[in-house]
Each structure stands twice: as structure tokens, then as C-alpha cells.
Amino acid sequence: MKKFSEFETERLYLKLATTADAAFFLALMNTPKWLAHIGDRKVYDLAQATQYIIDRMLPQHERLGFGNYVVVRKDDGVAIGSCGLFDREGLEGLDIGFAFLPEYEGKGYAFEASKELLKQSFSAFKVNELQAITTAENTGSQRLLEKLGLKFVGWTRIPGDDEELMQYRIQKE
């Protein structure tokens, strides 16, 4: 299985998440927006963050060769967010998702990283369609998905989540 471990944009590196990123994910997964729009993953310390990466991220990396990427600024090497493709239970195909630390929102980083991942999905990963899900309250995510070219297709629920989610989709041109 070919691994797609790193990509580069004008300002960013996207690198596959590893257990070395546990402290970053601990911080990210406990931000107010993550908790409100993605949900509490019960990751409250470094050991739990490490285990989350081992259990939830690394198996997909091994199986598909891609998955969740840490977004790192080139100019200072700081991890600022996460952008990835997820083979999520209850959804047909792959789901593109993103989350950024609050201090790095509104600077175009999420668009830049997601646009690159979208491009790689259709070229390097040979994916023909991607989807995304978001809460109705997460208007920032909705705007970004639409800016990336995804179209709202309806409402869905995923296993273990009572909330109805907005579902978006884009197909390879």
C-alpha cells in the first residue's frame, strides 16, 4: 500500500498524524468549536490522545495509505490544525473534515489545506467522490465546504450520534 504521508502548499505542510502529535490533538480536541461541532471524544490527557491516534487514525492510514493530516505552517513549524479524509461508519465513501486551533481560524489556512487534500483525493488517491458532514449551527464549515465546491445534498445521521447532520458532496470532474 502506497502511503501518502506529506503534501505541501504555498504556506503549509500536511503530514499524516502520528502518536508524536498527541499533545497537538489533545489541545485541538478540547477547543470549544471541536466540542460543539464535532463532539466530546473523551480525550482529556496525553495518554488518551495517544490512544485515540493509535485506535482511530493509524488503522486507516495503514489500510488506505491516507487519513488524518496535521496542518503545519511552513514559516515556523507550528501545528495549527487538522485536515483529513475519513472512512466513517454510516457514510458511503470518504468524508473530508477539518478543524483548526482558534488562533489560526479566519486566515485562509483551512481552505488552503482542504483544497490541496481535495486535489490529492481526485489525483493521487484515485477517489471519484467525497462528502462532508457538519452540524446545522456550523455555518463557517458550511461556507468553507461550498467554497471548495461541495454541494448540500440532504440530511443524515451517523451511528452513535442523535443529531441530524448536513451532508455535502463533490464528484471528480
Could you describe the 3D structure shown?
The chain has 173 residues and is of the alpha+beta class. The chain has one domain: Aminopeptidase (3-Layer(aba) Sandwich). The chain is 32% helix and 28% strand. An 8-stranded mixed sheet has the order 1-2-3-4-5-6-8-7. Helix 4 links the parallel strand 5 and strand 6. Helix 1 crosses helix 3. The longest helix is centred in the N-terminal third of the chain and has 19 residues. It is globular.
Q: Any descriptors?
A:
globular; Aminopeptidase; alpha+beta; 173 residues; eight-stranded mixed sheet; 8 strands
Please report the first level of CATH classification, the CATH class. Answer: Alpha Beta
The CATH topology is given as Aminopeptidase
Radius of gyration computed on alpha carbons: 15 Å
Based on CA inertia axes, which overall geometry fits?
Answer: globular
How much of the sequence lies in strands comes to 25-35%
Specify the CATH architecture: 3-Layer(aba) Sandwich
Share of helix among residues? 25-40%
Could you name the CATH homologous superfamily?
Gcn5-related N-acetyltransferase (GNAT)
- Domain module count: 1
Mean pLDDT: 94
- Poorly predicted parts: none
* Largest sheet properties: 8 strands, mixed
Query: What structural class should be given to the helix and strand makeup?
Result: alpha+beta
How widely separated are the two ends? Answer: 25 Å
